[in-house]
TrEMBL record:
Organism: Micromonospora zhanjiangensis
Superkingdom classification of source: Bacteria
Annotated TM spans: none
Taxonomic classification: Bacteria, Bacillati, Actinomycetota, Actinomycetes, Micromonosporales
Gene3D superfamilies, A to Z: P-loop containing nucleotide triphosphate hydrolases (3.40.50.300)
Domain ArsA/GET3 Anion-transporting ATPase-like residues, every copy: 20-186
Full protein name: ArsA-related P-loop ATPase
Length: 324
């Protein structure tokens, strides 16, 4: 692949939704997975929008670009002619856009921002902020031009699992703000989209106790809200290892064969480390079993020891594109 290109596998069959919401406990790599999924979906020549809503500029850092504005910008292409665009949704800008769209405030809206009214509104009413953010995502997902969808798929780097249910449950949040009018209508449209077959929420986890527990909790919450759950994506995974144990005599013979020291301290230290690794691997297998009980499709992405760069991002995109 040329520099700046993503995977060219055909991902449509494995990832049939149009709106892909990616969540996960902080530190699981959900932004990286969202970016890799966008590249995978664009790999067969499609146009994909990658959206972030938390103001962290994680997408810009991954792709080595300037901070994203409140505008859709191309950030990657594929050899098959696909394109990934990115957007950082800002709640204040979204509110100004909303006010201009429904109330034709124009310059008056900018004056409200100058006096701090926009920041006040989005801070005092967190539900309004989420309605604005999800409303912008819905608009991009359903936007058409010349009777064709502008984007074949939209990937949302969403808030973490601890907040994902409230973030996506916009109908309940909007009900606290308005009983009638454009806000209510918009929230109902967003809610319908999020509960439709064109949406899938993918949950990213590590094979560690806290991320897996948050994954289980989030999936239970999303299921109760009737929001479709797509795949569980295990990030930073190591291949399963057969059960077994290593004895000190075995370690001593191996060290001797390699021409390394076989003194008692060395053998004992290595034996303790090996035992700890076996315990850790046993825990990982137990957590794999817990995730399998969900009955959801899963994808495992490997740990990349060299860290995350564009080559690594493309490699993950290839694995996501090839998922069953």
């Amino acid at each position: 692949m040329r520099a700046g290109e993503g995977s060219d596998g055909r991902a449509g069959a494995a990832w049939p939704a149009r709106l892909h919401v990616v969540t996960g406990k902080g530190g699981t790599g959900k932004t990286t997975v969202a970016a890799a999924l966008a590249l995978a979906l664009a790999g067969d020549g499609r146009r994909v929008l990658l959206v972030e809503v938390e103001g962290r500029q994680g997408i810009a850092q991954l792709f080595g670009t300037d901070p994203l504005p409140y505008a859709e910008r191309p950030i990657a292409t594929t050899a098959a002619g696909g394109e990934v665009r990115a957007l950082a949704v800002d709640a204040e800008e979204a509110l100004l856009e909303y006010l201009d769209m429904f109330y034709k405030l124009g310059a008056a809206g900018k004056a409200l921002r100058k006096f701090g009214a926009i920041d006040f509104a989005t801070t005092i009413a967190p539900g309004l902020r989420d309605v604005l953010l999800t409303g912008k995502v819905k608009e991009a997902t359903t936007r058409t031009a010349d009777r064709r969808r502008v984007y074949d798929a939209v990937v949302l780097d969403a808030p973490p699992t601890g907040r994902i249910g409230r973030f996506l449950n916009v109908t309940a949040e909007a009900a606290r703000l308005a009983k009638v009018g454009p806000i209510k209508n918009q929230s109902e449209g967003v809610a319908a989209l999020l509960r439709s077959p064109i949406t899938a929420v993918h949950v990213v986890t590590l094979l560690e106790e806290m991320p897996v527990q948050e994954t289980l909790d989030a999936i239970g919450e999303l299921t109760a809200l009737r929001i479709p759950v797509g795949r569980v994506i295990v990030n930073g995974a190591r291949p399963p290892q057969p059960a077994g144990r290593i004895t000190q005599p075995e370690l001593r013979r191996g060290l001797a064969a390699a021409g390394l020291p076989t003194d008692r301290a060395t053998v004992s230290g290595l034996h303790t480390e090996a035992r700890d690794q076996l315990v850790r691997r046993a825990l990982e297998e137990s957590l794999r079993a817990d995730l399998a009980e969900l009955g959801l499709p899963q994808v495992e992405l490997p740990l990349l020891p060299e860290g995350m760069d564009r080559a690594g991002l493309n490699a993950l995109a290839g694995l996501l594109a090839a998922a069953d």
